[in-house]
Write a structure and sequence with these properties.
binds adenosine-5'-triphosphate; eight-stranded mixed β-sheet; seven-stranded mixed β-sheet; D-amino Acid Aminotransferase, Chain A, domain 1; globular; 20% strand; DNA ligase i, domain 1; alpha+beta; single chain
């Protein structure tokens, strides 16, 4: 049975008005069960706000502002004037605005199936070059002029990257499991497959018959494919050196903790790619428009190198020296390395700051910044080697293999030190050396046994940061949901303080718990004002909760992630009877970083902050 795009939009609306994750899972799985496999793949990408996996560099290229300009331009050409800025503040986001004006745009409506809309979206992301702005604009306007209010609303949100259904990839893995088993029996397996593929449409393609036996067979042997990023393994935090051994056993592996950009380095042969059957790849092969998605596949060379960040962004073109170095490595055909790339001062053999490193994360003028800020990738894990997936191998064995093959290298790719320690004193002394003598952020302690669990955060990998000794055991990543005007000079700047929220996994809400106004220079305040302006809305955005005492003067759509340090985590349940954010807050919070390169899915959770709170107050 074919579902229409309108029916999909109605589902999105229903999901948006549902806060229980279980209900969302049920709504989505019932719907997907009535769809073709093709449509399930399409919907999976759309839920992520994409037409292809995260690592395929294809964007619609519309901000909410440019989308409004497009629609506004259309109305103006018809002699009509609409105050979109006012409307947006009143009705909510871009989708709601477009739904309001939809009937004035409409010529006629017609049934569209999901695949038709997907093809159109694919065409929009692939339109580039001379005259592309106009061609894209025509495609968008043609759609809006032939669609119902609800289709226009969700189309606008998809194209502007503002779908925000609140369905995280983990929830989608539950959905897949429900489709096949009626419960979460296969969620863990689906999470594993998503972890090694990073491609939600690919995972969806394995559902084919919806029959449990068949699907289990399909997913059983799925493993890492070079050229496709693996979800980064994440780390837990603890409150003391003692706790490390309580959790990890008698002996542990210790590595320096570098503060740069997580970088997965893939080297593979041309023939390794295109082994998977996924819809976006079919387009890739069939349509010349998509051919440059894998730029390097067009090269004459057989060896290809790809670089991915923790957010699955393809950054191959940003670090040419790492690419060249990876190509030069002899004696191995294919590999995947996990590393942290850092700006490097080669004459003094020291690393540069996080801020300097991040200047290399840009698409343009790479040749110039490459000269002023050279980089080095410090490798700490080996995940794949010469056709073999190593993620199931014990950490110590993987590291030994990595040292043996890559250990003697110097230059843009270098293996990081790994030490094995068995006492608290030894661990402390290694920590002191890295932090006090080498100026590093801390250490990462790893369990000797156990595989590389892609995308998982558990106590097999633990971070110990220097801040642990006099502040929090870890900094906190908030999403900004509002701001306060402030008074005096601050008010003149336009913002006095920000309101930060953490993610509550249980209620699927963003719980606003902390006002952050320190650590911000006037210059940064000015940038913040510019950045948040386009996100302002009149009421609390969906899924954002706050207690009355903290209500901000201005609400903003949750999009920007900030990193905050503080003196301690506090908890006062009496002030907050609703238990928003588990009653947690921060004492003397200060902004460390504005607009961190982090997905909304990765902000600090209530559970994380509770761990930080408990580890500091010695409750464990
Ligand atoms: P979180 O991972 O908790 O969301 P975060 O992004 O702030 O928080 P950090 O606190 O910096 O992460 O710690 C984890 C990160 O440290 C890893 O994602 C990786 O980029 C970096 N890192 C540096 N050195 C290592 C190492 N030796 N092993 C693993 N990760 C390392």
């Amino acid at each position: 049975m074919k579902k229409t795009f309108k029916e999909l939009c109605e589902l999105f609306e229903e999901i948006e008005n549902t806060s229980s994750r279980l209900d969302m899972t049920s709504l989505m799985s019932v719907f997907l069960k009535q769809c073709s496999l093709y449509d399930i793949q399409v919907i999976s990408y759309l839920v992520q706000g994409r037409v292809a996996p995260m690592f395929v560099d294809r964007e619609f290229g519309y901000s909410e502002k440019s989308f409004i300009n497009l629609v506004d331009g259309y109305f103006k050409s018809k002699g009509k004037s609409i105050d979109f800025a006012k409307m947006r503040k009143k009705v909510g986001d871009i989708g709601d605005c477009i739904a309001v004006v939809s009937k004035d745009l409409r010529k006629k409506t017609g049934e569209r199936n999901i695949s038709e809309v997907y093809v159109l979206l694919w065409e929009i992301v692939n339109t580039s070059g001379l005259g592309s702005v106009e061609r894209k604009g025509n495609m968008v306007m043609d759609f809006l002029r032939t669609s119902s209010d609800i289709e226009a609303k969700y189309f606008a949100r998809i194209v502007c990257g503002s779908l925000r259904l609140g369905m995280h990839s983990k929830t989608m893995m539950d959905v897949f499991s429900y489709i096949v088993t009626g419960n979460k029996d296969l969620s863990e397996e689906f999470n594993r497959v998503y972890g090694v593929s990073s491609d939600i449409g690919y995972v969806a393609s394995l559902l084919n018959s919806f029959k449990r036996d068949q699907v289990e067979k399909n997913i059983k042997d799925i493993s890492v494919t070079p050229g496709f990023p693996i979800l980064a393994r994440l780390v837990e935090r603890v409150g003391s050196f003692e706790e490390v051994f309580e959790r990890l056993g008698d002996e542990v592996l210790v590595q320096p903790k570098f503060d740069g950009l997580r970088l997965q380095i893939h080297r593979f042969e041309k023939e390794d790619i295109f082994k998977r059957e996924v819809i976006w790849q079919k387009f890739l092969v069939e349509e010349s428009a998509g051919l440059d998605l894998f730029d390097s596949t067009r090269e004459e060379e057989d060896t290809i190198v790809k670089l991915f960040t923790r957010n699955l962004e393809d950054v191959t073109d940003m670090f040419p020296e790492v690419v060249e170095e990876a190509k030069r490595i002899k004696g191995t055909k294919s590999f995947i390395l996990d590393s942290e790339v850092l700006g490097w001062n080669y004459s003094e053999d020291t690393f540069l700051s996080y801020q300097e490193t991040m200047q290399r994360k840009r698409k343009y003028d790479v040749d110039i910044t490459k000269e002023s800020i050279p980089v080095k990738s410090l490798v700490f894990d080996l995940l794949y080697l010469n056709g073999k997936d190593l993620t199931g191998m014990d950490t110590e064995k993987r590291i030994e293999k990595m040292k043996k093959i890559f250990g003697s290298r110097e230059g843009s790719i270098e293996v990081a030190e790994t030490l094995k320690v068995g006492t608290i004193e030894e661990l402390k002394s290694v920590f002191d050396n890295y932090v006090n003598n080498m100026g590093l952020e801390g250490v990462i302690v790893k369990q000797v046994g156990g595989g590389y669990r892609a995308g998982t955060r558990n106590y097999e990998w633990i971070k110990l940061k220097k801040s642990m000794e006099n502040g929090l055991v870890d900094t906190v990543d908030f999403v900004v949901v509002g701001y306060y005007m402030g008074s005096g000079r601050r008010a003149q700047l336009g913002i006095g303080a920000l309101l930060g929220a953490i993610y509550n996994e249980e209620s699927n809400t963003y719980d606003a718990i902390c006002k952050v106004g320190t650590g911000i220079s006037d210059e940064l305040f000015k940038k913040i004002v510019v950045d948040v302006k386009s996100l302002v809305v009149s009421d609390a955005p969906k899924r954002v909760v706050v207690n009355n005492l903290l209500k901000p003067d201005v609400w903003v759509i949750p999009k920007i992630v900030i990193t905050v340090d503080a003196d301690e985590v506090t908890r006062d349940i009496s002030k907050d009877k609703n238990g928003i954010g588990n009653g947690l807050s921060l004492r003397f919070p200060r902004l460390i970083e504005w607009d961190r390169d982090t997905n909304l899915e990765d902000v600090t959770t209530v559970k994380d902050l509770t761990t930080i709170f408990e580890s500091k107050s010695g409750k464990k």
